Amino acid sequence: MLSRIEAAARTEVIVKPTTAGEELQIGDYWTYVSRDRITSRIKATVTHAVTDVTPSEIGIRVTMPRKPPAFLLCDRSWNMIDDGVWRYMPHNGMGIKAPIIVGNTWPIKATYFHNEKDACWRRSGTTNVLARRTVTTKAGAFDTFEIVSVFCDEKSNDPTRKIQAVQRMWYAPAISRWVKRTHEIRMQERNILRKSMDELIGYSCRGQIANRKRS
After folding, report:
1. Residue 105: which of 135, 148, 66 has the closest Cα?
2. Interatomic CA distance for residues 84 and 212, integer angstroms
């Protein structure tokens, strides 16, 4: 049985649902530094900027120094639909699910196709909202939800080719975006382990600022 303090804490989390991207505007952006978690080496500084917002989709331009921009298409829950290389049906399953409530769990199920090559993969797994935590990065301190996705990708015409992965992200409703994210990927056929971490170092969310002023 939960104590009064534990019950109150759980109630506080449950009664504060979040809708993804409800205040986004064109021009909002988030800048991240990406590191190799094994060597701690900085791999890139990446900026994601909103280029388009519709009732069902979000367009994102991704820029890195000395590289041409890339363009992403997501749904309003930050699930990827098309990243310029792969097209996901219905999406890649790596977003959030509103309302965000600690303890919520949902399945991951997707099929994705290469935009140029004849390649098809299938994804299955589970996402869990583990906890509500304060996370501090160079961009500030944020009230976040820790969300973990564990999944497996399997090539449709060769089930022996598999990729096992874990994505852990800390999503901040106040800026409609994650402030920290880690990936751990193991490619079984080559026994390759890759670990990466992205952290927010700067952002601008004009819709959120306007909403706070109104309130």
Report:
1. 148
2. 34
Measured between alpha carbons, how far is 37 from 60 in angstroms, rounded to an integer? 26
User: pLDDT tens digit string along 164-194?
Assistant: 999 999 999 999 999 999 999 988 766 677 8
Q: How many CB atoms lie within 10 A of CB 27?
A: 12
Taking the CA atoms of residue 8, residue 14, residue 16 and residue 18 in that order, the dihedral angle to the nearest 10 degrees is 160
* Phi/psi at 62 (5° precision): -105, 125
8 A C-beta contact, residue 105 and residue 119: no
Closest listed residue to residue 61, CA positions, set 46, 76, 50, 75: 50
81 phi, psi to nearest 5 deg: -105, -40
Could you list the residue range(s) of the whole structural domain that residue 40 is in?
A: 4-214
> What is the rounded CA–CA span in Å between residue 178 and residue 89?
23
Q: Using omega within 30 degrees of 0 as the cis cutoff, is the peptide bond preceding 65 cis?
A: no
> Residue 128 sits in a domain of what CATH number?
2.40.360
Residue appearing with tokens 């874990």: 166
- What is the Cα–Cα distance from 136 to 130, expressed in whole angstroms? 18
How many structural domains compose the chain? 1
For position 22, what pLDDT does the model report? 59
3-state secondary structure of 52: strand
